[in-house]
Amino acid sequence: MPRKSPFHARTTELCTSQNWQEWSGYFSADSYALDHMREYNAVRTTAALFDVTPLFKYHVRGRDAGRLLDRVVTRDVPKCREGQVVYTTWCDDDGKIIDDGTLARIGEDAYRLTAAMPTIDWLQDNALGLEVEIDDVTHDFGGLALQGPTSRDLLQQLTGADLGRLPYFHLVEDELAGSPVRISRTGYTGDLGFEIFVETMYAEQVWDAIVDTGRDYNLQPAGNVALDVVRIEAGLLLIDVDFVSSAHTIFEVQKSTPYELGLGWTVKLGKDSFVGRDALREEKTRGPKWATVGLVVDILALEKIYADYSMPLHLPYTSWNCAVPVYAHEEPRDPIGKATSGTWSPILKQYVVIARVDPRHAKPGSRIFLEETVEGRRYPVPAEVVKLPFFDPARKKETLS
Amino acid sequence: MTAAGTNRYDAIVIGGGHNGLTCAAYLAKAGRKTLVLERRHVLGGAAVTEELYPGFRYTVCSYVVSLLRPEVIRELELAKHGLHLLPLQSSFAPMENGDHFATYPDEASTREEILRHSKRDADIFPKFEQLMYQMAYAVKPILGMVPPNPASPGLRGLGTLRDLGKHIQSLGQDTFHDLTKIMTMSVSDLLDEWFETDIIKALFGLNGIIGTKLGPKSPGTAYVLLHHYMGELDGAFTAWGWQRGGTGGVSEAIASAACSYGAEIRTEAPVAQVIVKNGRAVGVALENGDEFHANTIVSGCDPHVTFRKLVEEKELPEDLVHAIDRFKFRGSSGKVNLALDALPKFTAMSDTSPVQMVEICPSMDYLEHAYDDSSYGGFSKRPYMDIIVPSTIDPTMAPPGKHVMSIFVQYASYDMPEYGNKDQQRDAFGNAVIDTLTEFAPNLKDIILHKQVLTPWDIEQQMGLTEGNIFHGELTLDQLFFFRPAPGYADFRTPIRNYYQCGSGTHPGGGITSGPGRLAALEILRDRN
What we know:
Chain A is α+β, with helices and mostly antiparallel strands. Chain A is about 20% helix and about 30% strand. Chain A is built from nine helices and 19 strands. In chain A, strand 6 (about 95-105) and strand 7 form a beta hairpin. Chain B is of the alpha/beta class and about 525 residues long. The two termini of chain B are about 30 Å apart. Chains A and B meet through helix 2 of A and strand 6 and strand 10 of B.
């Protein structure tokens, strides 16, 4: 049986659809109502509350905490100041990505790492000879993501911390409804938003405070169906969908590098040695084999295909997550890559897709073809290559003066 | 002012309503130096949002969106310019006996709700929805056609008639018969063929009378129902949505697109007259005497304003003058907008979750009585109301914890002298609305912070819509397609050369469609290339 998150008593009351899935060993709501649109719109219009407790969480403390992490992850850890959070990947010796997550510096020699996969073993393996203490606090903390345009105003009602001045990817420790919490200006939605980590004993009172205040801010609890749509709009990759952890596959073809995933910016080759550096340096010189890009599907062309069946255009209102081939030409021969997830974006009024293609076809503005299945038949449908993210509102990073 | 210099444009659009703006955007996108002249201080015409009470924004007239043509959204990239539609997926209708009927975003919940009322109707409901979907799909290509003149079609018109014929043929016999019935029947008769539950009939039936001075038992109202179901939201037929920031947000998005293509927009620039020389429109004169010149003049106003106010009668053929004078406006609806201190509590709703749409239309007879009440003038004592509380999904409308309520009301007459002067008429009408609504939501009067009441006369005065008709003329078969606004004048051109029409009084107008604006612009570009 999956585990119940410390918010489960609350979420289960609200999850009238009983639409649950298992996420890293926890029950996790896919959508609270049968239809996810209200939850999606809350993220982009008001505020949505996600239970993100299942994220793996590690506290790394001690004199060598920074050294250990700098050795493991691709980002430059010494440059991460106290109160700062960085998004990072980490790789194996071959430079193949194992996982990604956020690394928060929560003290002079203290860090919190979140991960999609269990990572304690990897951290311990790399800590040989270092003075460092690694705690898996995954089950000790509840995590909430409060995301959307009104999230800051809502949260500000509950804390003395000045959230208006909290910069993007920074964190503050404060009280929320009398409970000690860490609030970071982070999220997986590409919108203005915060993540709140709270010890399980305080979890329900934090949830209640947010939900009570949230009534005035059109707050909506939201689940994975809506989250997957917004993360695609935000051009954020999902493990086991857009890439596979090298720790979870023995097949080279399934592995990928940060460069191939468009995450080359997280790789700081200039820093001290870290796991995978040599391979990544070599790859950078050689040039990655794949480029991860956004595709905007030509829906007029898709509409024409449906018209051949005397049908109106059908659009994917929920995201799809199974890889389909991408072609350079209209003839479906020799794929130049694969599309890994896609969705109709209600806010952009575009059908957007994340794909991994041959770098020669990755130039924004290029026209390539994506396989679409209409009534059981496959068709190459034109799509335009664009830079990720698809949706990037100014409010995501803006601070209030 | 001289004809040369800065007052010279390629095209001038009169009226910054959503169709005028759409037309301007397409003309500007095609490289035409385009000017939009709007009488009011705000853009949008009847698709306008205004803050009449500090912190509270009203979607003053129109309030929901569905008919906005998807090609316009795409071609003008309106999402990039702020179009942000939130689907309205649930509705709630309190009944006189304290019970209610509701619909939900998912089929299963709606089916459960119908089962409470009728097992048979629970089966019928999806079939009826399918019919509406099918009709919307059948009508869709017609919405993008320039109506030909069947009496004198010309080569292009023949082409359109052929396409229309082919399309009708492709529908198959059954669909064509359904479509014909819907075009001609009363909404009440149509619904009697389908449902046995009165509240369900009432909930559909109300769509047949919106903006129309007819009761649900009047023939022709079934089409008005279809008109409300032929829209789409992200490809989902029949769906309705709320624009973030009210329908003014739609106008702002179109205006932003127009400006991005180089159009110039002036507000507080009321046009007094189109300047016509030798049967040719050459410019416009503002009320303050300023003149602007262009070899294309487009009116986004309704047919009465376009033909009977902006140009002189002598410029027009007699048949057109007569047709426009006979064109039915007959505004029949009003609007009440409220700023609320809290959410209204409906007695019939035990569930506390906020509902997106509330229909005060407890029975089919209620609707017909409301019509009877007003058919000799005045307003319905207990009117039909289509209500939304947009602040429950859109934080830009009211401060946190406060709300705005948009109440569309029918029926009200253009002139209601039995209630005194216009102020007294407005007060009496507003009170009838609030009193009736309070029967269903008893806390309403205690939470009202501010109210705006618009009778059809007010709508005419403020928005310039003749007799306050929200569609620029009723949506009856005799005023659609070939006949909108007059037989022989439905192709966006006018008898005055270089003078065009692009308002909702032309095809496929009525509601926020942007269809007339787009089609008119394409015709203008055709003529001018």
